[in-house]
Give the backbone structure.
Amino acid sequence: MDAYGPAPRRVTRQVRVGNVLVGGGAPVVVQSMTNTDTADVAATVKQVADLWRAGSELVRVTVNTAAAAAAVPRIVERLRMMSVEVPVIGDFHYNGHQLLAREPACAQALAKYRINPGNVGFGNKRDTQFAQLIEFALRHDKPVRIGANWGSLDQDLATRLMDENARRAEPWDASRVLREALIRSALDSAQRAIELGLPAERIILSAKVSGVQELVAVYRDLSARSDFALHLGLTEAGIGSKGIVASSAALAVLLQEGIGDTIRISLTPEPGASRTQEVIVAQELLQTLGLRAFTPMVTACPGCGRTTSEFFQQLAKVVQEHVREKMPQWKITHPGAEHLTLAVMGCVVNGPGESRHADIGISLPGTGEAPAAPVFVDGEKTVTLRGDGIAADFVAIIDDYVERKYGRAAAHSG
């Protein structure tokens, strides 16, 4: 292991979800979830497409009513007609066995089923209803995520483990018992699915909690006790910076240790904000850790008393938005452009140095500095920009560089 890099990825079984591979050494997969009423076909199609265009590689939808289940095949068909080739996952709670029985077209259209062992059924109905869901997965050749959750824990299992703990010579504290219940819920359910005939290569596990330290402890244990592919996510992470920081803190630790095959950042959207923010945060987390590359990374200084002008902030925003907007097309026509590094710096202190470290960098004039902005390409100063057209000129330099280095003509000449 490189002393400055993540640990080798944990070896897990590989699961195919539609056209996406999860686990088994495949890159960590980004997924997200809609918050539309699934029965509203138009709204759900639009949001799935938006999430996919933002970079979500799997999208989960709620399937909670007969109307939602009936809508799923139409949603998948419309997405296909739009050439949005993203696997759609069905999220089932309480009544999934009934909905799949009533709407077999839904069972076939979905790429994967998500089952929560804490609410698949209660009492003596639990085993029967779980078995029915696994039977649908077998019949339609679908993988399953068995997703235990701290907020909907199997209470019978938790009570049984509490009773066992009370008989220990040295009882565990309550939080450890509950973590064990969460892990056992996922592992025992996976074993039951295998006994029912579902191959281990079609099972993904998750065990979500809302506390950072608890999540790290749960997944370290879960990964040590199984070789199933694992989905990571801090459930109910929160809104805004709190949700971003909490999710990043938890998932970064696990990913750095080689744990995790697919991730979701479960953000509460700001009022009126796009659902796609959770996809962007997940991508940036993986790219910052050096595990994936999705879009050119922009380094920008935070500003200080030397940078009283806001122009460098505006330019950084323009550059970030430009490359993210261009990336869906570049991904097809200019493969490799996602590895491009950019720097937008605000003064002479670190500006030239950071600019030289990036593929393309610009050092804008700080307070009291000469009104000139040197541009560095591959470590060499190439031009000095001045005047009102700096933003347009710098974006043009980026586009020209991408064309020369990553365009098909450049690839063929290489």
Remarks:
- The chain is about 45% helix and 15% strand.
